[in-house]
Fold this sequence. Notes:
alpha/beta, 6-stranded parallel beta sheet, Rossmann fold
Amino acid sequence: MKSKVLNVVSVFFSVPFFFGDQLLHFHEKGYEVHVICSPSNKIKQYSLLKKFLYVEIPILRSFSIFYDIRAIIKLRKYILKNNIKIVSGHTAKGSLLTMIASFLSRTPNRIYFRHGFYYETCSGFKKILMLNLDRLTSFLATKVVCVSPYVLEKSIELKLTSKNKLILLNKGSCNGVDCHNKFNPIKINNTKLISIKSKFNLNEYDFVIGYTGRLVRDKGIVELVKAFQKISEKNSKVALLLVGPFETRDSIPSDIQNIIENNINIMHAGLIENDMEYFYELMNVLVLPTHREGLGTSLLEASSMKKPVLTTSHTGSRDAIKDKITGLFIDKSMESIVEKIQFYIDNPLIANKHGAAGRNFITENFDQKIIWDEIEKLYI
């Protein structure tokens, strides 16, 4: 039996996205894999599927002295009871509590995965507070994994972490992409694709603009919806396919939500937990006009599906594409989004060329087996 590994996140929603088959992979290699997250009615079934042990501990995304201290105590107790020597924390709040608990437990290998900077779009006291909490998390960790070169560079610039702790897994990511079995165009079942296409009334459209992720301000949804309205004035058979849930935190304005819900050319699929590859296959281009981003998993997945991608260059999403090769950079403006989408509409051969190059870029640098090998090195 190899070492015991504990992964901690705030909510179960993150488990399939941050780990997925990685959990089963390390189980099959002989590791005893543990997961802790807030209570969920889905974790039991998922644990049977991916072969990991788990316990549910409430970890609030907001701060609460009472609940946070109680979570730290429970985390520490679990670590000591199971004699766990490797602990990794994901998400800002989950990582902070995990690093405190594992530090108090004297766990020798404490890994903090920095997925980005929540406070990047904050200001004033809140930003200062979040910065210093991030520094505390880093101080308590023995290793800090940055999900992109951008995150690593900013970590140094903001003096969040001593350089000797910082780690980048190959070109970035925390889990990589299943390029061969899941996000692979040749694996698509055409009958199933036709069924999904029909379900979302996409048969009559010549060009589908796609987005996947939380529907919040920081992801650039406001700009994207306005850009789509502008695009629709010139192009009659263009649809916008939004895959992801509305959220109350950082919620979009009510008028933008009304447009999404009432515009017949906007299809809102909501949260999709399975078959994401089919939704990418329905898209002609993926657009992520994000204001802050650690890397941008949707960009990696869409590229693996041979889709050209548009994203901003001022965040970690810049590391997920190669400008003018696998996609195009956009500004955080409606005008820039309109211009670049229209370019792909008018130049389908270039769009296809960028998509094909994107798949090569992902398979060479972000294949999940590459990233998993790098993660295993952290356990030594």
